[in-house]
Structure prediction request, 422 residues.
Amino acid sequence: MAYYVINGGKRLEGSVTISGAKNAALAIIPACILAGESCRLENLPHIEDVHLLEQILRMMGAEVDFTADGGMRINPKTINNRHVTFDMVSRLRASYYLLGAMLGRYGYAEVALPGGCSIGQRPIDQHIKGFRALGADVQIQRGIITAKADRLVGAEIYLDVVSVGATINIMLAAVGAEGRTIISNAAKEPHVVDAANFLNMMGAQVKGAGTDVIRINGGRKLHGCTYPIIPDQIEAGTYMIAAAATRGDVVINNIIPTHLEAISAKLMESGAHVIDGDDGREFFMRVSCENRPRAVNIKTFPYPGFPTDLQQPMMAYLARAKGNSFIVENIFENRFNHVGELQRMGANIIINDRTAMVEGVDRLFGAPLYASDLRAGAALIVAALSAEGRSEIHNIEYIDRGYEYFEQKLRAIGADITRVEE
Ligand code: EPZ
Prediction:
């Protein structure tokens, strides 16, 4: 086990480059199964979740290797095991994308039912609703989901709830369904668009991704391709918040500004300066903050609303704001696990159901802290960086799942952070 030691109070200054998007990678790697040939993915982040998915594909028999310039090559033709066990799924929820990919490719899939997690129960009823609409017989017995169809046929599917996972998973299966599928009330996140673009690069016909109606003309033979995934807007937002929280001045490179509009707007509303531009090669965002931020209210919503994945780091920032901030978590029912840890640093936060009232304090103080999930861990890092004194952050295996080279990137912009192996 390892933990971070952070001595807070240092302004973050300098520039940081954003890695590939975790939530795009976790969808696009399984999608390679749909091609009859090898695919090559570029700009994948070196994070635990990607390594886990690589291991799962290997356990299924796929050939996975890395090219000299860091690309991942996946050859799905050698897959000989279509049973994704609970051991695999329990370590990586997103392995449920293998359901849609295998159903779309083989007409058969066996994947263990993912449990809930610390942020909520996270059912997959909408995924299953979509597979059944496409003609699959989906059964759940002894914790295993078995989906099979002699022939998948395009259908009109309305999602009862805007779901990133269901939108992508149904898209993967629909690519293998004869005729046209329409997914209404679809999620519009950047990684949904990236997954659709990847499918089209393989020769699929997916239109409307990024809107709430996605149309797929399925049943086409797909071929291999080379594809660079998009930069991670949640990683970028985390650094933007950390820069403002430490009253620093940081340039964030390799971003897509439209993906960051919600977080930029809220940081500017709080009094931080956010400038975006391009150096002729890539876009960048510059975030600085000289004074104590003003309180702002946050409501998380599906994209393009304020992302739930930045709710926790944003709360750490607002814990030191002038005034009271009201944060409403509309997506997950239990995404305030970081609050107790922030309170131990001196934060003044009251929770009432899905609303947290954050009464800003001028100072936070370092303490021994325990991460409960990936973005809670990011929130504790933001708080520790802006607090006075020494903090230890434990359970950082959660953080390793979603942030590439986190301590190295933070140290390069002035953070006093050390990883200690216990
Ligand atoms: C994806 O999770 C992300 N994970 C999450 O990021 C992110 O928080 C979430 O989207 C929302 O943006 C990946 O992409 C791997 P949902 P997902 O289906 O797809 C309910 C991170 O930190 N729902 O959009 O599981 C669900 O309970 C992670 O990177 C159903 O009711 O999220 C939730 O309340 C955390 N039935 C809401 O919809 C379903 O069948 C949104 O969930 C599916 C979802």
Summary: The two ends are 5 Å apart (CA to CA).
